[in-house]
Amino acid sequence: MTETLFVNIPTIESIKRLGLEKSDSNIAILLDMFTQEELGVDIRREIVSSIGRQKNNDKIYEFLNREAFSNHYMEVIYQMFRTCLYKSKEDARFADLRDRILRHYNNEVMQKMLEYSIFRQQKKMSLKPQRKILKPSLLVGDNRITLNKIQEQQIQLIFTSPPYYNARLYSDYKSYHDYLDSMKDTLKQCYRILENGRFILINVSPVITKRAGREFESIRYPIHFDFHKILCDSGFYFIDEIIWIKPEYSVPNRIAGYLQTKKPLSYKPNCITESIMVYRKNTPFLLDKNIRDYDKNLKNDDEIDSTNCWYIAPKFDKNHPAVFPEELCQKVLKYYSFKGDVVCDPFAGSGTFGKVANTMGRIPLLCEQNLDYAEKLKQRGFDEI
Ligand SMILES: C[S@@+](CC[C@H](N)C(=O)[O-])C[C@H]1O[C@@H](n2cnc3c(N)ncnc32)[C@H](O)[C@@H]1O
Prior knowledge:
Layout: H1 12-20, H2 24-35, H3 41-52, H4 57-67, H5 74-87, H6 92-105, H7 108-122, E1 137-140, H8 143-146, E2 155-160, H9 176-193, E3 194-204, E4 207-208, E5 220-221, H10 223-233, E6 236-245, H11 256-261, E7 273-281, H12 287-291, E8 309-311, H13 326-336, E9 342-345, H14 352-359, E10 363-368, H15 371-379, E11 383-384
The structure holds S-adenosylmethionine.
């Protein structure tokens, strides 16, 4: 009877039905189907899935062992790997095959599939850490050290604008390498204190350092490109890049030289954008699990930003040379945290993020090493811990 399900050009539906009914004749049809040439990727993947649903492990193992190392689209190979993950719980041959496939392809998607599957098997054992930070708090000093006071996974969101290498008076690093090493140390702390699966957002943009003399060229540093690497090395993965766009009148004028001469090669456009790099802590589960921790009625009912371009005028402050506009902090808090979350800015400066977080019902934790800025933050109600 099942054979009538099989038509010359198999459809996803017909293949699914063959997979649902476990029988020797169905697995034979599916194995035969797979040998047909010119099948689309989706069809081929569905056939592998339906073969994997069958009971005859000998036949399934023989099939996977032969085909997983043959020339197929990666989507089809992923499905074979998925079958191995599933079957490895009941049959050791599939665990061995799973490891051989992983070694053969050395592929990051498969690595993630394996981590997810291990996590699902152990998840009942993992307990959420109890929250310890209950009011607006401040750590005074170098965040690479002061953050040791914070226990693992206490923070639900990190948003910060680190020093842009030596662009401002408050930063003086021996070299760019030294700067990146220092940032890496802070990011390691960020990884430790951030709850699994939550976001870190870093605001940076390229900078230029002053020329050492007229005979030398100045050096321009694409800081955000290098941050990508140190974020990944620290255990975060890329989610998005949001482009903060400012009005042209508000940025330094770089185009004037070119406008005078109009000489090719001397073109230097006015830079009206900064990056907001959005990364998530490497975690073997989907975001849905993080969202499920909250009341299901909690959602943003106001206007949304539907693109990754946010048009916001910069803010200038007489007390600090590089403050966040409040609107930027509002958007970050709205899209990447829930009310009641503990949110951290490890390079707090004047504490704009902390202030906005407080008004939006989040609990801010700020770090600042400059004693004058720290003093002002204490006066604004951030308790030193
Ligand atoms: C770009 S500013 C941040 C400005 C902030 N977004 C605001 O709205 O005011 C960077 C701040 O980080 C501080 N800082 C630099 N290195 C630090 C470190 N290792 N630990 C703690 N604070 C640091 C600097 O003193 C400076 O105030």
